[in-house]
From TrEMBL:
Organism, as annotated: Gymnopilus dilepis
Lineage: Eukaryota, Fungi, Dikarya, Basidiomycota, Agaricomycotina
UniProt name for this protein: GST N-terminal domain-containing protein
Region (Disordered): 1-27
Gene3D superfamilies hit by this protein: 1.20.1050.10, Glutaredoxin (3.40.30.10)
Biased composition (Polar residues): 9-21
Taxonomic superkingdom: Eukaryota
InterPro entries assigned to the protein according to its UniProt record, in alphabetical order: Glutathione-S-Trfase_C_sf, Glutathione_S-Trfase_N, GST_UstS-like_C, Thioredoxin-like_sf
Amino acid sequence: MKDFLQPDTLDSNSTSISNQPDFKPTEISSVIDGIPKDMGLPRPSHPTLVGPERVLSRTDTSFTTETARRSKRPFQIVLYDVRLSQAEPGHTEHLWAPKIWRIRFILNFKRLPYQTVWLEPQDVERTLRQIGAPPSSQRSDGRPVYTLPVIMDRARNVHQPVILANTNTIAEYLESTYPARPVFPEGARAVQTLFVHFIQEVFSKPLLPIMVPLSHQQLPERTRDHLREGGPLVGPQREQAWQAVREQFDFLAMIMDKNIGDGEGDGVVTMGREVSYADFAICSVLIWIERMAPHDGWSRVREWNGGRWRKLYERCSHYMDEL
């Protein structure tokens, strides 16, 4: 479970080009769906697609979702994600991992058609090795670590797709490769990257003792046995933990309020008046709370700081399609 919450490194080494002689990118289903059943790899659900209403009068790529439907060509971008045990296609409440949501937000915001391949946590490393994905980091002993999100992009070369791991690496790749509808405001990429690092490394830390056990409970039984997380906090310990979370939200609200004073902010988003990558990082955490702790957690957070976080959630909700 903690693998999905590990901090992203700030380098750009988590990229590979598929060069396995027996690997055909156009047959991605053979890696996940068409493998022998005794290997135990999960079968992907039917992909949910970006609705044509998201591809408005302006198209950011020549290959739109509607084009994909008509031509039945394979989707150029594949996102690998993890889903909870009770999930079914189109059931949004079961998509929860914050780092993967950051990439999903970018894909939706840029109106890039993509397909999701669903994995269970214990199958992630085996599957990513099989498709030729790079490790997202290394353990202290040098062994590679394979975590989600991972994307495969066949847009430039269907026979040699770009395969990327590490949330920050993927975000920068998508911004550079598909510059229309930028998620990094001009001249702010460094500041945005630092802000997102703060969200991951400092802001989210007090949430872990609360949210990780709750997320663990929603996973399939064989996954829970594999991860062996502790039980949820209860009583005074739980309230103390939520108080520590509140302190982080209060601090972030105080910082973001500085935008109001200079007349350039709207009191909701991180920079100016439009959502950006930094807002998607915050909202990914809000989604995690809303879906794993709707009554005990989201009912608190949504009202903190004058309802700021509810308003941000609503601003980002336009980009919460699940493809």
